[in-house]
Amino acid sequence: MSTADKNLSVFSIDDLPNISNKKFALVVAEWNSEITEKLYEGAYQTLIAYGASPDLLVRGNVPGSFELSVAAHWFAQRADIDAVIALGVVIQGETKHNDYINHAVAQGITNASIANNKPIIFGVLTPNTMEQAVDRAGGVHGNKGDEAAMTAIKMVGLKDKVL
Ligand code: DLZ
Q1: pTM higher than the cut 0.90
Q2: Which single residue of 124, 142, 147, 158 has CA 20 to 30 Å from 136?
Q3: Residue 103 is a catalytic residue
Q4: Residue 18 DSSP code
């Protein structure tokens, strides 16, 4: 085992990086915007609270969560973007529409992340009801936008340490 490999085995993912010069793209679905705006606000404020520069945060809106993957891919292709946070809410309906969207977005984001070698964070709520969505967008279960931002910060730091 090389010295570098030994070092990798001891660092903590909670050892947060300096993100003052990191550029984040936040891609936000307009479907269920009363919820996605809260996810966006949570993600934005968390990035700022942990040292991101407001002028290095860019936002792109998409019509619905199905479009998150390709827009995230476009942002990730840009050399100046360090990480992308995809935010959406897909509420279970009377058909399987939500299943198709959820699987497509999860797979699309995974593919775009690997293809571009950058973190793309899955900040998509998949609740059964609007009430469950409200609970997770600044309600009793916190704000998943905050968690998505923290994940982005940790992955940016991890990438810098590993590569
Ligand atoms: C069509 C649709 C439905 C039924 N439900 C949702 C939803 O709960 N959340 C969401 O973000 N988007 C939904 N959409 C829209 C799709 O994501 C997509 O925009 C359209 O199918 C057009 O590709």
Answers
A1: yes
A2: 158
A3: no
A4: P
